[in-house]
Amino acid sequence: MTTTASQDTSDRPDLSPEERADEPLLVVEDLTVRFPTHDGLVQAVTGLSYQLEQGSTLGIVGESGSGKSVSSMAVLGLHDMKRTQMSGSIRLGGKEIVGMSEHRLMKIRGQEAAMIFQDPLSALHPFFTVGKQLSEAYLVHNNVSRKAARVRAVEMLDRVGIPQARTRVDDYPHQFSGGMRQRVMIAMALINDPKLLIADEPTTALDVTVQAQILDLLQELQRDFNSAIVIITHDLGVVAEMADDVLVMYAGRCVEYGPGKEILTHPEMPYTWGLLSSVPDVSADADARLIPIRGNPPSLLSPPAGCAFHPRCDHTDKVPGGLCFTQLPELTPASTGGNHIKRCHLANPEEIYQTEILPEIAPDLAEVITQGNIDEGQREDEDEDR
Amino acid sequence: MTQTISDRPDAGSAGVPAEREHILEVTNLRKYFPVKSSGLIRRTVGQVQAVDGISFAVPRGQTLGLVGESGCGKSTTGRLVTRLYDPTSGSMKFEGREISKLNRRHMMPFRQEIQMIFQDPYSSLNPRHTVGTIIGTPMKVHKSVPKDKVLPRVRELLALVGLNPEHYNRYPNEFSGGQRQRIGIARALALAPKLLVADEPVSALDVSIQAQVVNLLEDLQKEMDISFLFIAHDLAVIRHFCPEIAVMYLGKIVEIGDRESVYHHAHHPYTQALLSAAPDVKQAVIGGRRDRIRLEGDVPSPINPPSGCRFRTRCPLAQDICAKVEPPLLQVGPKHKVACHFAGELGHAPKHPVMSDLLGVDEQGSPVPGKQATAVGNEPGYDSSWLDLKSGRTVTA
After folding, report:
1. Which pLDDT does position B12 carry in this prediction?
2. May I ask the CATH architecture of the domain B2-37+44-242?
3. Looking at the partner chain, which of B210, B259, B295 has a beta carbon nearest the beta carbon of A278?
4. Residue B376, SS3?
5. Nearest C-alpha of chain B: how many angstroms from A368?
6. Per the CB < 8 Å rule, is B212 touching A292?
7. DSSP state of B201
8. Nearest chain B residue to A239, by CA
9. Do A265 and B285 touch (CB under 8 A)?
10. CB contact under 8 A, A216 and B294
11. In chain B, domain spans
């Protein structure tokens, strides 16, 4: 991985030496984003920290309004700074994004970090041909002729699997199907070989078969270009397939963060449990009842005191002294260790998950996972829990 | 709640057993939308074959799921059943009575009994009307409840779908997406319908809210004995909600059967591809993903669908016969029908077309002289005998 990264840097003479610093590609530290409005201050993102290495994928999960898109837009500096209060630090390849001038941001956008938007029909301009839009993205960052840019556009369309790219390049967005438009969006995002790709719900508007194609394509491109991907989604299935690391957000804060497999097999935060138990899946018992998270997501104008999830949480009675209602839990390492952290007061979440949650959501799986644990040599942990 | 049940006309009035069993029977339903040329004289230059000869039956008090990609005609089917569109041809029998050709006036009584829940809770509620007006209007139109009883009934319905009954005076913008969908459901329930067409009722909602709405629909079905035609593209939701499922592709039903047959013994390559493409959390949890069948390309245009089997352009099993002869929906199990020349479970597709004899053609699909095609009926419901694919013989239950 490191070799490819250094190749990348050697390809780009314009990089500053600080970029070779021994730090992950993307480091977000204590990011806070607030929007003043007539109704008050919207606390969209609070104290968010995460890291992303070159070539790996981070999945950000959460409901609408949990701050996942806002935090990712901040990475590209897409917020209007006149109307946004932002603090903390976002370092992309060693460069500080927070507070960077618009002029310098322009150079970063597209070149070093690019975004794939959810709805390709509204993200593509209806008046210009796909080829024109693609080559514009290339011309902005490269001093080449229009002809060369067009060649590059055809090459990229071909690369993302659009048949007859040479003729389709002159088509308008409406002449493409939903899946093809999303491919065009991906081609546009990748045309300058960015090191970081942010995909904001890239497959939500698509059908399952097309979604599978797009996810395969993203993984394939990631292997080829060794780019880092941040994938924002509310579909845990997508996260399970794509992400190395998972970040669960609730009410603007990170509530659980860690390696994907760890989060999905040993979640320790009741909100993550809720997300897992409220999706039916194609292999579970069809008679099992879905267990929804009751209530609605909180308003970000005045998030609940204490743990923001407490009004919807079924486990507040297990925490002594009503801490959930008064004190915001810190991000603490999970009981299974590793890099897994969670924001919850519960003392023995693993036990509650194994005994209360898992049997309800997937009785057959409860056994499999228990066996899986034994394979991983965690038998002692299990016994202790019991 | 008891009020709701007593409001309904006597449910046991139907005479014939089949009608008692099926609340809705659809036979050979077609909907073609004309494509007009541009210019002053707009001639019809083609037809979008949105729904092309489908047959299914919705069992009383049960749910039939319709699943497929966008553009496969599942929503059009829903709108045909509610008669928001007029069918081009075919028959729809609601409790044994033909409703496909009824005019507006004669359709009125049926509109009370067939209601619809729409996909988008933001655009399907009038922003200028209060919730009370939205839910109360159907009752006023159909005069199902005396005027002074409308408001109490609205409040009852709001409570039924889990909203605060005192909120009847609010406007839709004061509610969240999930709550709006509940309002839409309350409106659909206002006339105590017997059949609810739910067109992607949860796909616009957040995951955690989806489960709330799915559970609500399940409860309502149990309490009020409503039959559902449940349309969705999410295979997991469909599987959870529907004991019987029809898979549509480009205006045709390609496979229909009970949950077990469709999800565990899918015989059509399209169903198999759909199932393999659905991302599955719990699979990933216990280690890795399943092998995915990659479908190349997009759904062809319904204006000019491929000859023969409509799926053949993307089908990994396609052979000559598929382009020449259209496979009919053939019953292959007690509650399982499939439309494929090479129907078989994943990885066990037969080498030779399974119904070439029935259709009077050879294995390449050319007609065999002197051989007559046996008609394979396109009837809703299931027969008591079927073709067993393993032995190649007709089996009777």
Report:
1. 40
2. 3-Layer(aba) Sandwich (3.40)
3. B210
4. coil
5. 7
6. yes
7. S
8. B281
9. yes
10. yes
11. 2-37+44-242, 252-396
Q: CB distance A237–B280 less than 8 Å?
A: yes
Mean pLDDT over each residue of chain A, to the nearest integer: 83
Which residues fall within 8 angstroms of residue B318, CB to CB, at 6 or more apart?
Answer: B309, B311, B312
Segment B327-356 mean pLDDT: 89
- H or E stretch including A265? helix A260-265
Minimum distance, in Å, between the CA of residue B289 and any CA atom of chain A: 7
Chain B residue with the nearest C-alpha to that of A271: B208
Kindly compute the dihedral angle of the four CA atoms of residues A348, A354, A360, A362, in this order, to the nearest 10 degrees: 140
Instruction: Name which of B240, B250, B264 to mutate to probe chain A: the one with the most chain A Cβ atoms within 10 A of its Cβ.
Output: B240
pLDDT at site B5:
40
Amino acid at B77: T
What span, in angstroms and rounded, lies between the C-alpha atoms of B265 and A157?
38
Q: Which amino acid is at A67?
A: G
Are the CB atoms for B347 and B302 separated by under 8 Å? no
Q: Which residue of B has its CA nearest to A299?
A: B176
Element (H, E) at B307: none
CB contact under 8 A, A279 and B281: yes
Which pLDDT value is given to residue B6?
39
pLDDT digits (tens, 9 = 90+) for B195-249: 999 998 988 788 778 888 899 999 999 999 999 999 998 888 899 899 999 999 9
Chain A nearest CA to B284, separation (Å) = 6
Above 50 in pLDDT, residue B117?
yes
pTM: 0.81
- Closest approach of chain A CAs to the CA of B313, in angstroms? 15
Mean pLDDT of chain B: 86
Beta strands in chain B (DSSP E): 22-36, 44-59, 63-67, 89-94, 97-98, 114-117, 195-199, 227-232, 244-249, 252-258, 330-333, 336-338, 385-388, 393-396
Q: Contacts of residue A282 in chain B, CB cutoff 8 Å?
A: 235-236, 239, 263, 275, 278, 280
Domain residue spans of chain A: 2-6+26-243, 272-385
- Count CA within 13 A, CB hemisphere, residue B293: 16
Find the closest chain A residue to B289 by CA distance. Answer: A241
The domain defined by A2-6+26-243 carries CATH number 3.40.50.300: yes
Cβ contacts of A286 on chain B, cutoff 8 Å? 239-240, 259
Three-point CA angle B51, B55, B61, nearest 5°: 115
For position B1, what pLDDT does the model report? 41
